[in-house]
Amino acid sequence: MQNFDIIIIGGGAAGFFTAINAAELNPELKICILERGKEVLTKVKVSGGGRCNVGHAEFLPRELSANYPRGEKELLGPFHKFMSGDTMQWFEKRGIALKVEDDGRIFPVSDDSQSIINCFIRDTEKFKIQVLKSHAVQTFQREEDFWKVKTSKGDFLAAKIMLATGSNPKMWSILKKLGHKIIDPVPSLFTFNIKDQRIKDLPGIATEAVVRINSNTIDLESNGPLLVTHWGMSGPSILKLSAWGARELQKLNYQFEILVSWLPGVTFENVLNQLKELKTNFAKQQVLKNAQFDLPKRLWQSLAVASGISDGMTWADLNKNQLHNLSSQLTESVFQVNGKSTFKEEFVTAGGVDLKEVNFQTFESKFHKNLFFAGEILNIDAITGGFNFQNAWTGGFLAAKALSEN
Ligand SMILES: Cc1cc2nc3c(=O)[nH]c(=O)nc-3n(C[C@H](O)[C@H](O)[C@H](O)COP(=O)(O)OP(=O)(O)OC[C@H]3O[C@@H](n4cnc5c(N)ncnc54)[C@H](O)[C@@H]3O)c2cc1C
User: Fold this and answer.
1) Which helix (H) or strand (E) holds 126?
2) What angle do CA 327, 295, 196 make, to 5 degrees?
């Protein structure tokens, strides 16, 4: 039986970050990472479209934590100790140049996730952290002062263990047996399936929008770019709703209505008045040929057609009803959502270890001494933009501090 000071279960983002930081704080420690797969860091590899969006340029703890539908309150304290600026410094200190894109997302300058992986592998070698692949952990249990970890390739002993197994159901069921509450996993970060004549021919069109879901059980609103896809709608405004509504939308079996305003911040009345002015000032101009409000032309045409306006009609031809309809289509288009799709294969799981049962100073279990968690195993998840990795880095960093202490 092999003996370690610290065993990290799971060779993903959170596992590697924890192992490296613990070793850096105390190089004497014997640390190993047990990974069930043939490869480690597979999600880091494919993350951010292969570019790895390592974090987000948001440098205020409260603002940063507001991006976590689950974990907002609990991460506030930890972010005061380790957040975006620290993440940037951490990688830059290791020679990984980073850049911030216009929307705030942070990437390696190389635009290649492999640079992040190389950095992690280099550090595990430097600190002699053992990385044992194809070691699937089957169970773990307390044996006197140690944790006994049973894997597909033999048993291991360690004084402290860290679970960084992402959304692996097996680990959750073991934790349930150890008395932890697991919040049911549901998918987050998905796009909406919508079959609707108004957007049928518009895939690829992107525009700023405000999207709202308002039913008996849910009232959510988000804004940002909206992208029309072959299946329906995607883009940051939609993904944010999918994250904040993850649990309620699952209860609705992903059947619900959304209200889209294609003109953020402009009211129905305001638009109606502007349309009336167009009718007066541009009476002879054809409506479909002259897109207004800086909208993409095909979207404008589609909304106008849905308002009962046909090809060749001029502003003078429009009656009161058509003006009303158009103003309504522009500011409160209703679409029926029927199901969801994955977003560029990127998704996270909402659910996991109940946050009430974790000490967020150290990321240690409140029930079991020397049992730590970090990353997606916890009931923490965020919208897209680098926030999910930030959760893994922050948890890993703070747990590493506690793990490395004697
Ligand atoms: C396609 C895609 C792209 C993404 N892009 C981004 C992005 O650009 N930015 C961002 O912030 N977030 C992104 N995310 C989310 C992000 O990848 C996750 O939030 C993050 O990887 C979670 O890290 P983790 O270490 O907790 O879990 P994981 O990365 O899932 O790692 C868990 C590891 O544990 C191993 N494991 C599980 N069970 C066992 C077991 N029983 N024994 C041993 N090992 C086990 C798994 O094989 C895995 O290697 C993306 C997600 C996907 C799917």
Assistant:
1) helix 113-126
2) 70
The single-letter DSSP state of residue 344 is T
Q: Which two tokens stand for residue 94?
A: 């290791």
Closest residue to atom 11 of ligand 1, CA basis: 386
Is there a contact between 69 and 249 (Cβ–Cβ < 8 Å)? no
Domains and CATH numbers, the chain: 2-186+346-404 (3.50.50.60), 190-342 (no CATH)
- C-beta 47 within 6 A of ligand 1: yes
Task: Tell me what pLDDT residue 163 has.
Answer: 98
389 lines ligand 1 (CB under 6 A): yes
Question: Probe ligand 1: pick from 64, 101, 151, 346, max atoms within 8 Å of CB?
Answer: 346
Distance from the alpha carbon of residue 24 to the mean position of ligand 1, in angstroms: 23
Show the 3-state SS of 32-53: EEECCCCCCCHHHHHHHHHCCC
Mutate to test the pocket of ligand 1, among 43, 52, 101, 111 (most ligand atoms within 8 A of CB): 43
pLDDT by residue for the chain (406 residues), tens digit each? 899 999 999 999 999 999 999 999 999 999 999 999 999 999 999 999 999 999 999 999 999 999 999 999 999 999 999 999 999 999 999 999 999 999 999 999 999 999 999 999 999 999 999 999 999 999 999 999 999 999 999 999 999 999 999 999 999 999 999 999 999 999 999 999 999 999 999 999 999 999 999 988 899 999 999 999 999 999 999 999 999 999 999 999 999 999 999 999 999 999 999 999 999 999 999 999 999 999 999 999 999 999 999 999 999 999 999 999 999 999 999 999 999 998 777 789 999 999 999 999 999 999 999 999 999 999 999 999 999 999 999 999 999 999 999 7
Query: With a 6 A CB cut-off, is 15 part of the ligand 1 pocket?
Result: yes
Quote the tokens at residue 404.
């490395």
Cβ of 164 below 6 Å from ligand 1? yes
* DSSP-derived 3-state class of residue 312: coil
The closest residue, in CA terms, to atom 29 on ligand 1 is: 12
DSSP 254: T
Query: How many helices and strands, by DSSP H and E, does the chain display?
Result: 14, 21
Element (H, E) at 389: helix 387-404
What type of residue sits at position 3? N
Q: Please tell me what DSSP assigns to residue 293.
A: T
Q: Phi first, then psi: what are they for 213, rounded to 5°?
A: -120, 125
